[in-house]
Amino acid sequence: MSAPVVAAASLRAEHLSREYPSGEGRVLALAPFTHTFPSGLTAVVGPSGSGKSTLLNLLAGFDRPTTGQVWVGGTDLTALSEAQRADFRLAHYGFVFQNHNLVGILSAQENVEFPLTLAGVPPRERQARARELLAQVGLENRAGHLPSQLSGGEAQRVAIARALAGNPAVLLADEPTGNLDTRTGERILALLQGAAGAGRTVVLITHDRDIAARADHHLSVLDGVVTPA
Ligand SMILES: Nc1ncnc2c1ncn2[C@@H]1O[C@H](COP(=O)(O)OP(=O)(O)OP(=O)(O)O)[C@@H](O)[C@H]1O
Ligand SMILES: [Mg+2]
């Protein structure tokens, strides 16, 4: 879906690890991990508490690693300041979370436009782009609805449209189908597969084995250790 990605950027974790303080000691939430994420859809599976969100938050630069780097193309995300990381994310990343995280007081259309507004895209251009994206996720007739007026699956489709608004090279999704019934989850998967098919690197955390099985690439996480599955 969406326009072809112009500059596909490779996503690479290099000796990436994260410890958290825990009482007197420390817990190794992610053991040192080195991996180049291929373009296409990578599913990350593993039990609750295994370190999946820790990994995703590091790849996103939301969290800082204890050791290692995250490379997106030639940029080391971990060497950037917080403000630089925010700008970098806006330009290169899209995110989809379990709870859609749409802005409650903005319509579906305005939510999709939001990252483009932040990026300084002129109104006419961003309105047209948001309309196009809403049509791609099958919601052109819900553009004026507030998030509270959308079903869970519809809200998640708006969130995907928003994530793709800036045509990001990297799309990160943490349990995007977790709250949805199987059929709606399938629809979300199809949108992510479409996004991956356009040359993006899509990383999908999921508990759903059926959904994971249909990804192009697989990683599994157990007690902070990530291995190809
Ligand atoms: N901010 C934090 N401070 C301390 N420990 C943390 C923090 N965030 C996560 N942890 C710990 O790190 C480990 C991995 O957590 P993480 O959230 O990555 O798991 P997960 O695989 O995403 O689980 P789930 O499937 O339940 O979402 C857990 O033991 C968790 O308790
Ligand atoms: Mg998690």
Secondary-structure map:
Layout lengths: L10 E12 L2 E13 L2 E6 L6 H9 L6 E6 L2 E2 L5 H11 E4 L11 H11 L4 H14 L15 H13 L5 E5 L7 H16 L3 E5 L3 H5 L3 E6 L2 E4 L1
Parallel strand pairs: 3-8, 3-9, 6-7, 7-8
Antiparallel strand pairs: 1-2, 1-4, 4-5, 9-10
Helix pairs in contact: 3-4, 3-5, 4-5, 5-6
The site of adenosine-5'-triphosphate (ATP) has 11 residues, from strand 2 and helix 1.
Protein name: ABC transporter ATP-binding protein
InterPro entries: AAA+_ATPase, ABC_transporter-like_ATP-bd, ABC_transporter-like_CS, ABC_transpr_LolD-like, MacB-like_ATP-bd, P-loop_NTPase
Keywords: ATP-binding, Nucleotide-binding, Transport
3D structure, described in words:
By secondary structure, this protein is α/β, with parallel strands linked by helices. The protein has a single domain (11-228), classed as P-loop containing nucleotide triphosphate hydrolases (Rossmann fold, 3-Layer(aba) Sandwich). Helices cover 34% and strands 28% of the residues. It contains 7 helices and 10 strands. It has helices at 52-60, 82-92, 108-118, 123-136, 152-164, 182-197, 209-213; strands at residues 11-22, 25-37, 40-45, 67-72, 75-76, 93-96, 170-174, 201-205, 217-222, 225-228. The strands form 2 sheets. A 6-stranded mixed β-sheet has the order 6-7-8-3-9-10. The protein is globular. The protein starts with 10 loop residues before the first strand and ends with a strand. The chain binds adenosine-5'-triphosphate and magnesium ion. Magnesium ion (MG) is lined by residues 52-53, 174. Keywords: ATP-binding, Nucleotide-binding, Transport.
